[in-house]
Write the structure tokens for this entry.
Amino acid sequence: MKRINRHARVALASALISFCVCHVRPSDPSAFHTSIGSVSYASDDLGPADTIDSDDQQSQPNESSGKSLLVQQGYSVGDQVGFSGGRGHTKTHHQTLRAFRDSVGNSWKSTVQIFDRNRQVALGAIVHSGGWIVSKSSEVPDQCDVKLFDGTKAIGSTVLRKVDLDLAILKIEREGLQPVVLNPKVDVPLGGWLVSTNIRSTPLNVGVLSVAKRNVPSERPVLGLRLGEAPEGEKGALIESVVVGGGADRAGIESGDVIKEVDGVELPNRARVLDHLKSITAGQFANLTCDREGRKMTFRAQMMDLTSSLFDSTEMEVNGEISSRATGFKNVMQHDTVLLPHQCGGPIVDIDGNFVGLNIARAGRVVSLAYNVKDLQPVVFDMLRTLDVDITELWNDSKIVANDSETGSVSPSQSTGSQSSVPASIPAYIQVESLKPEIVVPQKN
């Protein structure tokens, strides 16, 4: 019922905003600003206005076009609503994120950034002080650069992959690193806060746990293309349309291109091109050689397991970038933290700084998936054993030390089965989310 009421408030706020934009034109723009700034948080809570898929869509002032006062002041109503008075009331506002900084303590030091060709592709979690890291397999190359919290970089090698779970173990030549503590006794109730860490002390983002455990069925990997037969007398397959935001679109492939080769193999017709693409799994790249108006062009496009709803260009635009592999997961948590694909693979902690899981995919605008520490621990231990890594130190640790004398914050809660208290530094208007009672599903007799 609370969730229904929340969405009702969002709908009511959106309707009010639309009404004001269409019918109200006060002489004092600041008064208009204030009159609806108090309800803007309900709309902002659906996602931040500063995410990568909305930065370039902000409307610009154009007095000659007769646009509303909001648009003339640099605010967009169609794609993203933003108010100077309301942005402070969002989970992703920098002031809100700073409020969580003391709570997570030093747990962020167990996070790394992973780069491929100077481009960040994922985050990772240090799981052993000897330079062993776990991350999202489909985004991590065999060789990469790894950046640590202190700003230093190291060369990383992917030494083991568990494709069915989309997990990978990386190794860097470093010692004395601070690992996350894989304590299966740590738990977060439904509605509890989840903090995604970065290599900075300020959290990457925060959200709440929506579903404690769910299965996400697998979708067939695709490039996001509609193929037809090549023009008469030519070999290959004609690209009739490209899905916005899909792997082909990201690679720069356009409608009208003709695919001649895939991974160096010359393919005579549409059927052969499809057969070859079907053999590639989600997250892997296909090297395509295309003909574009007589010019030979090559592209490196990533296969993605898009759900059928995302083949609609409007849906993809609203959702923004989706992880190349966002389906085919079992027993994952779902939370509403707004992440980008290259921000997956890193740790999640609770408001006491305890490691509670690993972000594994962005499946929608406010749908992020993560492995719970209970399910992640045995998998990581098994992968490390396969690599002959001594995990004695991991067994000896029972919880992460998230707060120390340098932060001056309270010590972590000793209770993991009950609702954690909310730090006083977190504003009152967002504390209510963490106080939601756990939902108990009645058992059948």
